Amino acid sequence: MSGCCAVILAGGQGKRMRSDLPKPMFEVLGVPMLDWVISACEESGIDDICIVTGFNHEVIERHIDGKYPTVLQSERKGTGHAVMMAADWLSERRDKNVLILNGDAPFIDRETILAALWQHEAKQDDVTVITAEIPEPHGYGRIIRTDTGISAIVEEKDATNEQKLIREVNSGTYWFRADRLLSSLEKLRPNNAQNEYYLTDTIYILLSEGCKANAYISANPDTVLGANDRKGLLMLNDKARTAKIYQLLDEGVEIVSSDGVTIGRNVHVGAGTRILQGVILTGNTEIGENCVIGPNCLLDNTKIGNNTTINCVQSHDSTVGNNVSIGPFVQLRPGTVIQDGVKIGDFVEIKNSTIGVNTAVAHLTYIGDSDVGSGVNFGCGVVTVNYDGKAKFRTVIGDNAFIGCNTNLVAPVRVGNASYTGAGSTITKDVPDGALAVERSDTRIIEGFGNRRLQDRIARNTRK
Known about the structure:
single chain; 464 residues; Spore Coat Polysaccharide Biosynthesis Protein SpsA, Chain A; UDP N-Acetylglucosamine Acyltransferase, domain 1; 9 helices; elongated
């Protein structure tokens, strides 16, 4: 695709969204619409891309982070004017075919882009409009075809009753010969009620000069869909969510009910896995085969092995092995690695730690900044005390250790292989291999203390 480039129009303000966010940055399945469009280009082999920004352009520039060049459309004067802002960039690519796309139309796909390009080149057209046939074309520009191509794109407000019956509509995506596009942009005029420069007018200009214009009908009717308001954004999310669920069903994933289930476009799930109600899978999450996920889980950028059960868990940037059981009410924070065969019970939080093979963390435990060996058993209420108010320190627990209930491990500290800690201990020194550590203060009993406190409380309440 060295002979191709792309310009993505991403200057939309989206006033009806009632937000300061540029419209292309609104998310579909947790991914900005602009990223969907960029991904479609990249998947098609197009990596020479210019992005036209506008309203609150700094947001997009920070998001792109220098990966692609941007140009600013400081005034909103129509789609043709937006492409004009990229004229200098296009001038360096006069001999290429250029794809013009909308940054808020997320469902353009690789197959459509490449098939339209093939037709564009095979027929030696100067412009190829990507279109779709939809059952309800109201509001879209209609494609007027001839024996040799197309003769016009007629907007809804200008269409005759007969033209309104046409179901082939403009997607807003085009292949142009860059030199022809640049030539037609120079002749664009804002001769309309909105006083804007319409990109569709370049079709008329090229045809008037004897150039060839054609249209490619996409097999994906959703290529025309965008979002002008929050209702439209919800519709896009519903479509994308349903499409992802159907894809996974075809791949052998069992989804018991779609209630509350949202699965991101970059998520991979293995065959035989069951997804229960209320599951949200986002980012680059990967789940192996024959797992049970849910109910009520949020997994973000998390990798899960095979034959693992995850129940009511929130996990971010973590890795979980095979044959693991976690939950309910567990949080895995970034940097957590759970190795094979681990069992984690209810009300456990783990952060930036590795939990070794076949270790059991029963319940009511916090493990942070720790390296835990294999075969370790945690009693109820264990805490790794990893932060002293200034810095964080690591705890190391050897293989086959037994950490008694309500043990505080004050880092930096090491508990050796096959060592024990007594229940209620606060461990501040390293424990040798095979040892028992009991670190408690002596019990002191003060007779009558409770009775005196009770009498004081009664007296205070009487005075009130």
